[in-house]
Description:
Layout: H1 2-21, E1 24-35, E2 55-65, E3 70-81, H2 85-95, E4 100-105, E5 108-119, E6 121-122, E7 127-141, E8 145-150, E9 155-160, E10 164-180, E11 184-186, E12 189-197, E13 199-206, E14 209-215, E15 218-231
Antiparallel strand pairs: 1-2, 1-15, 2-3, 3-5, 4-8, 5-7, 6-7, 7-10, 8-9, 9-13, 10-11, 10-12, 11-15, 12-15, 13-14
InterPro entries: Beta-barrel_OMP, OMP/PagP_B-barrel
Protein name: Outer membrane protein beta-barrel domain-containing protein
Keywords: Signal
Amino acid sequence: MKTHTILVSFLLITTFTIAQESKYYLGISYGKSFPLGDFTANDINKSNAGFAESGTKLDVYGGYILSKHITFTFTFRYQNFNTNINALTNGLETNNQGTVFIGNSNSWQIYSLLGGIAYKVSISKKFSLFPRIGFGPMLVSCPQFSIIATNENTYTEINGSSETGIGLGYEFGIGLKRNLGKNFCLMPTFTFSGGFVTISDVDTTVDNAVTTSNYKPKISTFNLGLSLAYKF
Length: 232
């Protein structure tokens, strides 16, 4: 009787473990992010132009399988974009003939925590597609910049402060899953992501004159990268 009890307990624990292994995954992805729309715009006359260049992204992600086709997903995403400071200085030179502008800038820093749903479309035993959508909070820091303007008669220094705002982030796109044995799988995603955020109290200083304003960048990016996940 004791032996039977131990055997039944072992089978129950094993069954529970297998069930758990089939429901969860955790992975990491590194790749490229490409700014889109106004986020990559180089027009200094646009109040929400981002001057963002192609950047990088790092995802830590996971999922919980709710049913045969539905998976709850979460993603923590970090994105970094350099600023096209040359486009900004060229635009200033166009609007100020005879003045030479020299500038430098830090990068955009974006953090997102997104929860959502993916729908499984089986292609073969080892390969599936996952259309997906997600929403969550987004933290955005605009870049600090410094520009020196010189001509024969004047010397002007322009500085912009780096501030941080919180907004609503989103993503939608498609994921792929290719099993690699029992526990590992490739899970690359191809997604559009962005968000709505207001960055308050951004200071622009021209010599000693300071102008403070709110900045509402239109964050929009396309993301892809290498990805590996562990199923448990």
